[in-house]
Design a protein that fits this description.
It is built from 12 helices and 3 strands, in the order αβααβαααβαααααα. It has 323 residues and is mainly α. A 3-stranded mixed β-sheet has the order 2-1-3. This is Olfactory receptor.
């Protein structure tokens, strides 16, 4: 199939009739059916788990707090990230449905980058929430009012939209002249740009600038927040009180590590480990990245948050009583 489609020749300027071929995980084509099993399972669990988390937050009045509002946004972003990537991924693995139009590819690219930037901003908002709760507990309700929380959520979405929108124009401005095979399971900015005949220096510079000035700054501010949190916590004389304060941050720290660690791996592997790390490892990590954190996030918060446990017990206790 790839050999038949690879020689396709396209008009240099007409992108409407262009089709790409997503080959899945290069080098592991024979293992696609086996790889699809855990990915499909994690995708289903991610959608169900995050949807249930959103349901709990919406229906339980005691969870109508800034921390859980941001958590519901994170869960929504996780559902969108999984559904934007996993169905096409599974279609490749199961049915060899590798072709995708240029417009669909660009749309998928935009949503992936937009959701990633939004999740990074939400994690920063959650870090700010924990900073205010621990360092300024008496002012928590006056600082993080409903209005302020809503504005932070809107700002996270608007910022992500504005910095990711230029990616669409950057790939549409390029000329394409025949190369149509993307060695990946989904479309992303540089994967599309590398198929162009023009110079992609602007694309590379803008991609790096966005990574440094959005995600990079988010990480810096998150580290600053937790540095101030730790300074405040270690001034508490009681060890029990220290542990209780840190325990409220445990779930968020786990989610941060799961979100940024694979992203850093991919970033540095592409730039410094191109010859030492096999390409299929890069793609496999990228595939797992869009299903593993979304699957684990509701589990982590469910295990670490007593309010969720109590709410789940109250929902299922009538069922167990009837049975």
């Amino acid at each position: 199939m790839l050999q038949e489609m690879a020689p396709f020749s396209y008009n240099h300027t007409n992108t409407q009739g262009m089709w790409y071929v997503l080959i899945g995980i290069p080098g592991l084509e024979d293992s696609h059916p086996w790889i699809s099993i855990p990915i499909c399972s994690m995708f289903v669990l991610a959608v169900i788990g995050n949807s249930f988390l959103i349901f709990l937050i919406v229906t339980e009045r005691s969870l109508h707090e800034p921390m859980y509002f941001f958590l519901s946004m994170l869960a929504s972003a996780d559902v969108l990230l999984s559904t934007a990537t996993a169905p096409k991924m599974l279609a490749i693995f199961w049915f060899q449905s590798m072709d995708i139009s240029f417009g669909s590819c660009v749309s998928q690219m935009f949503f992936i980058h937009f959701i990633f930037a939004t999740e990074s901003a939400i994690l920063l908002a959650m870090a700010f929430d924990r900073y205010v709760a621990i360092c300024h507990p008496l002012r928590y309700t006056t600082i993080l009012t409903s209005s302020a929380t809503g504005k932070i959520g809107i700002a996270a979405v608007v910022r992500s939209f504005m910095i990711c929108l230029p990616f669409i124009f950057l790939v549409y401005r390029l000329r394409y002249c025949g190369r149509n095979i993307i060695p990946h399971s989904y479309c992303e900015h540089m994967g599309i740009a590398r198929l162009a005949c023009d110079s992609i220096k602007v694309n590379i510079i803008y991609g790096l600038t966005v990574a440094l000035l959005s995600t990079g700054l988010d990480i810096v501010f998150i580290i600053m927040s937790y540095t101030m949190i730790l300074c405040t916590v270690f001034q508490i004389p009681s060890w029990a009180a220290r542990f209780k304060a840190l325990n409220t941050c445990a779930s968020h720290i786990c989610v941060i590590l799961m979100f940024y660690a694979p992203a850093f791996f991919s970033f540095f592997a592409h730039r410094f480990g191109g010859k030492t790390i096999p390409h299929h490892i890069h793609i496999l990590v990228a595939n797992l990245y869009v299903v593993v954190p979304p699957m684990l996030n509701p589990i982590i918060y469910g295990v670490k948050t007593k309010q969720f446990q109590d709410r789940v017990m109250s929902l299922f206790s009538p069922i167990s009583t009837c049975c």
